[in-house]
Amino acid sequence: MAELSLAPEPNRSPLKALVIAACVLVLVALAIFFLNPRKVSELTVTQAEVFAPHTRMNSMQLNTGMRVLGTTPEERDDLYIVATVKLENKLRLPIYYSWAEAKLVDPTDAEAQANLITGSDLTNLETSFPNLKPLLPHPLHDGDEAAPGQTLQGQVLFLFPRLNADQWKSRKRATLTLNLAHQDPQTTTIP
Asked: Of 43, 110, 114, 169, whose CB is crowded by the most CB atoms within 10 A?
């Protein structure tokens, strides 16, 4: 008959188990590193159209909405830039456009910040300047989505107040920043 042994088993070293666990963790970390995209998205400005109207106002509008006739006419140059942007989503999650901003740096290194024109202001501007409407076939709106692996393309309209087309042509550089919901902003140059 076999002898019954109630003595504890000899101690095993945990070194083998620790080495196996470390190898598994390294393999998981390498898989995550190589399989996940390094860039959230890629932003490019495919086209930039310049719209620089010279306006002359023969009356002054008060805060009450009434116009005062007979005042000194005011002339003004404003620079509108219609940038067609292309945002390629590199993630496995959707990316949502939130808003955009643009900056211009002139030859003296002075910066000019643009105003983004959206919503009812965009509609009013297209009514005031009918030549602007064909430049904006697909304007981007807050919440527009780039599905996973897909591309979001559309136009954003910026106003550089008191600048003209010559100042745009002589610029040192211009940048566009697309702000995304739940992601870091993406910045690129405007050609």
From this structure: 114
